[in-house]
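Materials and Methods. Structural model of ABC transporter ATP-binding protein. The 428-residue sequence of ABC transporter ATP-binding protein from Floridaenema fluviatile BLCC-F154 was retrieved and submitted for structure prediction as follows.
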Amino acid sequence: MSDPVIRVENLGKKYIIGHQKQQNYKTLRDAIAEKAISLKKQLLKPLGNNIDDRNRKEFWALTNVSFEIKQGEVVGIIGRNGAGKSTLLKILSRITEPTKGRIYIKGKVSSLLEVGTGFHPELTGIENIYLNGAILGMSKAEIKRKFDEIVAFAEVEKFLYTPVKYYSSGMYVRLAFAVAAHLQPEILLVDEVLAVGDIEFQKKCIGKMEKVAEEGRTVLVVSHSMSTVKALCSKAVLLEQGQVKAIGLVDCVIREYLNFNQADTAEKIVKDEDHLTGISKLRVQKIRLINSVSNLFRVYWQQPISISLDIEVFEQIEEVAFGAGIRTIDGTHVYTVHHDDNGTHQLWKFEPGEYSIEFTLENSLRPGLYKLHIGADQGHTSSKNICWLDIINVEILDHSENGEVPLQNNSGIVIGNSTWKAPKIFTG
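The predicted structure was written out as tokens:
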């Protein structure tokens, strides 16, 4: 049995949370004021003045996390939003330090934690390949040797001389993944990067990570898609509220994860960290199920799913298309719709401020638990993701409001209707 290449021992990460209103843009005056307040705290601290401590509290994102991963293993890190998955990968990537405990890592680590991390928006695709490769520890000679492979994998040949600020989110993720995956690291860490890629690219990425593992290297992947985890990983770690709830064979851990999933409350406050991408221009503050049952994100069978979104826009933005979609809890994509699917292509324009948006999804789903994702794109020809949420569990009850139940002799995720004709019917 080989020695572990990653060992995590009693890992804990604590954050101090203040009750101050978040500011997205900081002026020089704000910076000076914050410096003055910080200096005042330092001067008062020896005198025992702890007045400001009343507005601060501790939050443990991880508590006593321990596990080992051996060379060549492909391991999925799963759990609900806020479970501590991304915090764990940031610690393993040496981006942040643990509050307690320790980690042991043997080998070169390459991490892809956010779409386009390390990219400079004003630089071209070529320039960002060299910049991102250097940030991830690649020499110029290595980048040059791998350059053609990276470009071919990312499929951005036509845009190599274009500043990446004009790239769509799909182009961003393809190029970022291509650079990270071609570094030939001993350990590759991937955090929910496939969330904004198209289906074909996801398959391509999974194939690349499988090849990395076949070469004896180690892969850790955070994903909300259980189908991706199941297809890629042999082992999984389940986190719940910052602690390891289960670790072992991927099928067993996924089964335990699915068993404790349940419908969310009918009104969900959205935090910054819930947004997978793009909170600089637009942020969802609250999601509410208008026609909820028992004050949960739950509707009757065949009842439409009516949603209200409270959003905040930080700067003027044009050509915005909102969308929503449904997946099964294990990650199977059911459908996605956009507000301009009627063919009019009437995209929306927002000035800075707060808005409320309502939409209704038709419900032909079979009873069960599903994942609702919500997002917003910008642009017609080169759609760029500016907001992406994947945090709501919605339950379809096993009966209609008047007690009717679906037929059990048909199968599938959705309930379809059909019309049949035959030239002549014979009965015996």
